Amino acid sequence: EELEQLKSIDKLTQNQYRALTLDITYPMTEGKAGMAAAIDALCAAASKAVRDGINLLILSDRAISKDRLAIPALLATSATHQSLVRAGLRTSTGLVVDTGSAREVHHFALLGGYGAEAVCPWLAFKCN
Q1: Would strands 56-60 and 19-23 be described as parallel, antiparallel, or unpaired?
Q2: Is 12:5 a contact under the CB 8 Å cutoff?
Q3: Is the pLDDT of residue 9 over 60?
């Protein structure tokens, strides 16, 4: 419920805050090279979104399937964070990581240390 509230934060804040979900999965058919391209595309999309006024980015691996691989959440978070820092945009947005791979306290600590302000461990919630 809380993640859904963040996704629709524009309605809750009279458009003062805007959120965008960025997919951190890529087609399995693209192999190893696909991950590098997906990371580059993710960073470019994040920078464009912040320049367009998005102040909450949600990095999500929910599209994972037998045909789509997830960029490891820590790698996606770190790459996005560092890309936004280099572009001078990091302080203009928050990063939320919506991932099935965070299951232990250590995972949350690492994601926070690499730039996430919040983590939604969707797979852990699904298993309960």
Answers
A1: parallel
A2: yes
A3: yes
What is each CA distance from 34 to 70, 82, 98, 121, 123, in whole angstroms?
A: 11, 20, 21, 25, 24
The H-or-E segment that residue 43 falls in is: helix 31-51
- pLDDT tens per residue, range 56-88: 999 999 999 999 999 999 999 999 999 999 999
Q: Which residues contact 19 (CB under 8 A, 6 or more apart)?
A: 6, 7, 8, 9, 10, 54, 55, 56, 57, 58
Element (H, E) at 70: strand 68-70
- Helix 73-86 and helix 105-113: axis angle, to 10°? 20
d(CA 95, CA 128): 25
Residue 69 and residue 24 in contact, taking contact as beta carbons nearer than 8 Å: no
In angstroms, the Cα distances linking 101 to 10, 40, 86 are: 28, 21, 27
Spatial CA neighbour of 50 closest among 6, 3, 17: 17
CB of 52 closer than 8 Å to CB of 88:
no
How far apart CA 95 and CA 42 sit, in angstroms, is 13
